């Protein structure tokens, strides 16, 4: 280690281990200002911390070590931190399940006994005696290898599954025999953002992968992603022998997804372009289920990217498709493959006032999941579109997308059993089974809780944003709380990529509410709560609407005496981290603390890393003058100002997040620390960064790591909002 690096580390280590005032000897690590200046259409933009984008350089590694040497002891010394850690562990220690899936009479599901780092996959052969099929906890010593998805073969004989190490988006596919739990020799790599679609004969599956780097290059965590291709892998063969099914060399940013119809007759291919939900839809006739063939050409049912299309199933040559075409909030249509022109499509379930979130063919009809003001409704329809009633949910909550299942509804055409989960702010996800034929449902896998959900209250209110738009807001708290303007409050938001934020259970939020906190969730524009128009209202040059919606939520909570600026914090992850960073810059006076997690903080360069280019549909890019002007106006990294009294900020990221690369959080933190502490000394409202090692964007993070991180965040939250 050279002298400069030694000094960098040392400056982060002069810490005081009591819980009193911050010692004046505590200093932020040195982050030398570079001289990089970019010219964007005549505007000179300094980027002094460009060097932190190289996350594996010795200089950056030293800075990371120094920042953790400052933040981790600081957080560990906060009042209640140890008590919070213990309470988090106690409340997380409950048996829970992922959504079951039925295949060939077998039931597959994930189960966690409480504090296992990763959920374990079980199979029940139909005799009510489940056995362990795959335990990811045995795949690494520290629990950082996660099972990310799985798909049983149609006959239930094999399980294709994916694992990821240290939270990476890079997956490795393997195949396991269900009978004896032994892996075959099949091993597939260079996979990100791919599903698994078996052919009906159970002899292989479709998947997508990226090519190896150019000659001489070494595959790495942060490889730029381009030229994904769709392949068919036949069991027992090497990956090099996989059959190429679809590609477009002229469109390196196209993505490919596939599924096979339940009868095995058709291959359905989804062509995507970026992170938007809009897609093209191609279909290939595989011939017979017993001897599928790739020889037939694709029928390009839709060859543009103007709407979303998801095939729910088929009856013969008729496909049932959920789409946003001519229906901003979604509808279901029937497409006859012999008459593929849009003018020939038959409307089955028309657009309604609620947003059609997902649907599937199950039993002898359709089940549709709708959002009504960001809460879930389950409705049934016949294949002729006739309404068949509603499946009642327990309350003001949602049907969630559970991790291992990767789906919200689990069922099959011809099978009367439908599985779904229900969750709310005071109710962990609980699996239900509904008999579509008998029209009756019940809890399928009861869970035992060590708290009383009746002790907590959730209200849904509506407030007006700056331009008068009506925005939903959930407010949750422990029964008996007084609206006195002094309650510690955490306001959370996202507002992007047509992702809806619906009620869901969180152990950390429950611990916060136990201690008198108020948790508020705002349904901002940019999400999908009210369909395509709601999403578009928070994108591109309309992105400021999202920040205005969030600030208006804070102002509403203050005006209604739930809290006050001295007691109010905001939080968000990923695109929500951008939301927090931008809102803090625009309204620092509103907040006592802020939690930008794995945020997109440099809006001028985000598209240059890994999958960042795919977000241009929401953000635009600085490659155009109009895009630059819009992004530069709110980019969190570029709008930090010296002399401003910012709230206490705790940035969280991981050293090898390959979704939102950690350079975003590194550069933002260095700039914020320089602005709030010209002399380098921590003040009463610190700007800290907690950098997880051997971790990624968050998916698959071990329970042990989650408990430690959430204890730190809760201790920081209570320290600055009480």
Structure, explained:
This protein has 722 residues and is α+β, with helices and mostly antiparallel strands. The chain is built from 11 helices and 39 strands. Strands 32-33-35-34-36-37-38-39 form an 8-stranded mixed sheet, with helices on both faces. Strands 3, 4, 5, 6 and 7 form a 5-stranded antiparallel sheet that branches. It has a 4-stranded antiparallel sheet with strand order 8-9-10-11, with no helix packed on it. Helix 10 links the parallel strand 38 and strand 39 (687-692). The protein starts with a helix and ends with a helix. The model is unreliable at 1-24 (pLDDT under 50).
Task: Give me a quick take on this structure.
The protein has 722 residues and is α+β, with helices and mostly antiparallel strands.
Overall body shape: globular
Total strand segments: 39
Adjacency order of strands in the biggest sheet = 32-33-35-34-36-37-38-39
Oligomer: single chain
Radius of gyration: 26 Å
**Main β-sheet description:** 8 strands, mixed
Q: Mean of residue pLDDT?
A: 93
Q: What is the helix fraction of residues, given as a range?
A: 10-25%
First and last CA, distance: 42 Å
Strand content: 25-35%
Helical segment tally? 11
Low-confidence stretches: 1-24
Structural class: alpha+beta
